[in-house]
Amino acid sequence: MNSLGIHSLVWAGDTSRDSVRRCVELTSKAGYDILEFSLHDGFEADAGESAALIEAAGLQVACSRGLAPDADVSSEDPKVVQRGLDLVVESIDITKALGGKILTGALYGAFGKASAPLSARGRANIVASLKEAAAEADASGVRLGLEVCNRYETNVLNTAAQALRMVDDIGAENVFVHLDVYHMNIEEVDFTRPIQLVGDRLGYMHIGENDRGYLGSGHIDFSELFRSLVDIGYEGGITFESFSSAVVMESLSNDLAIWRDLWHDGYDLAQHALAMMKGWLAASQLNQS
Ligand code: MN
User: Fold this and answer.
1) pTM
2) Where are the beta strands (DSSP E) in the chain?
3) Separation of 147 CA from ligand 1 center, angstroms?
4) Which of 36, 147, 188, 209 is catalytic?
């Protein structure tokens, strides 16, 4: 049974005490199991108090982030690499303090359009840094996801095959592949083959429409996608991600190029997405029997 989640940017653009309370209340009211926070700007509210709210609401929490140009483990500059590793370790600590067991995202590099391909030294720095981060995470009971993103957001992992090679090179049990339909639609030739290829090393999924708006309003073949997840026996979290300039976290929204109002009512969007995901999952399970 998959847990279904929602990204906090559907509810609030920051992680102040009031915003965290609002995110927890609305995630729970809409019927989701997982609340995902972006740690792109760190976490402002008290983590212990937030963890208590999340637990009292019966929710799971996941955290995600990308790195930054001056704190980037894919750099060739040892100081920038070290700051990148520090950022990942700090994010592991926040995840643990919130009661989370998953930290995922572009943990391998800065978000944004790269001006050149990843260098061999940059890749070696990622592998060495994430080996260290994985050991730290393991001691905190946290698993690390490598989210495969499109070419305009990273030059490190654009395909599931690249992510598998990196997970193999890191060689830690608690590092997994995280696929996101929005990025897959840009980089993969279909949804089935990458999901089959990753198989039991798939640890987290982001679900989104091709324009990152209302689920089911675009051209993504969600029947194929959910059938592929059911076929590999995927039991991990499936989190709905959607962005609109109606809710802005300045740093993240600008890095993700969120320039348009794709929706105004996050609650309506969230309820609709949950119903769609449940429907696709149920239909795929029936299809299998
Ligand atoms: Mn994503």
Assistant:
1) 0.97
2) 4-7, 34-38, 60-67, 102-110, 143-147, 175-180, 202-207, 237-240
3) 7
4) 147
Ligand 1 centroid to Cα of residue 289, in Å, is 30
- What's the CA-to-centroid distance between 205 and ligand 1, angstroms? 8
3-state secondary structure of 59: coil
**What distance in angstroms lies between residue 72's CA and the mean position of ligand 1's atoms?**
19
Q: How far is the CA of 220 from the centre of ligand 1 (A)?
A: 15
pLDDT tens, residue order, the chain (289 aa): 899 999 999 999 999 999 999 999 999 999 999 999 999 999 999 999 999 999 999 999 999 999 999 999 999 999 999 999 999 999 999 999 999 999 999 999 999 999 999 999 999 999 999 999 999 999 999 999 999 999 999 999 999 999 999 999 999 999 999 999 999 999 999 999 999 999 999 999 999 999 999 999 999 999 999 999 999 999 999 999 998 888 888 888 888 888 988 888 999 999 999 999 999 999 999 877 5
The candidate with the shortest Cα–Cα distance to 97, out of 140, 65, 60, 131, is 140
The amino acid at residue 257 is A
Q: Is 147 a catalytic residue?
A: yes
Among residues 55, 90, 241, 250, the one annotated as catalytic is 241
Query: Is 188 tagged catalytic?
Result: no
